[in-house]
Amino acid sequence: MALRELLFLLADVWMIAVGFTFGWKFIRNYGNYLLGLEWIIVATSGSNFFLYAALGGTEESPMYTLAFFFDQFSRSVGITLILVLGLMRVTHRYKPSVGTDVGVFAFATAVGLALLLFGERLGTGVAIFLIAVNVLTTLFLIYFSKRLWAIDAKGWAVGAGLATAAGCVIASTYDFVHIPGDDEAHTLFYIGALSTWGFQMFTYYFAYRALHRHDESVGAGPDLREPSRADA
């Protein structure tokens, strides 16, 4: 096995481990199903990607189709809208209703399927759309990092800032840049991408925990939970 292939598999295992571990922790420790399930979805995508690479799958493989769907799911809505709504639990005391949780994942699934089925016809418009939603998400994550800095969680503020910057670089080069010396499977790119996505999920979990603890310690503002039908 070549060194780059080994590094690819290690980067993927790192992302899988982080996604499953901290996805479950988001659900168990904070009842945050938006972030928990999205982390688990990313880890599931990584597991499928691992098997696809290990078995030497082709573009005709169902695993390739599944990998493409997961990729579009998370890049379009998962690590954008779902991420922002999930983090707003500690930045704005916003707790969506069960209906909103279900609805946003249904929306992400619909968008992922639409891009899977029609993305090729839309051409570069899809890539531009994915960059645009990433830029909007990055703006919120800059605010998230500033909130961490303001509560004196400077280490996690810097970590979140670095993770966001790295994620932004990956997102902006994903469809447009070919690393010199990389192979047709873009192994070098995916080593960096998988490592970055794992770093993001790891850092955002601990940054979230820092803000959650701060909110609890100061009894921050009202819980802006969406009223459910039972509350009405």
From TrEMBL:
Highest rank taxon of the organism: Bacteria
Keyword list, A-Z: Membrane, Transmembrane, Transmembrane helix
Q: Which residues cross the membrane?
A: 6-27, 34-53, 73-90, 102-119, 125-144, 156-176, 188-207
Q: Does the keyword Transmembrane apply?
A: yes
Q: This chain belongs to which protein, by name? A: Transporter
Origin species: Streptomyces bikiniensis
Q: What is the lineage of its organism?
A: Bacteria, Bacillati, Actinomycetota, Actinomycetes, Kitasatosporales
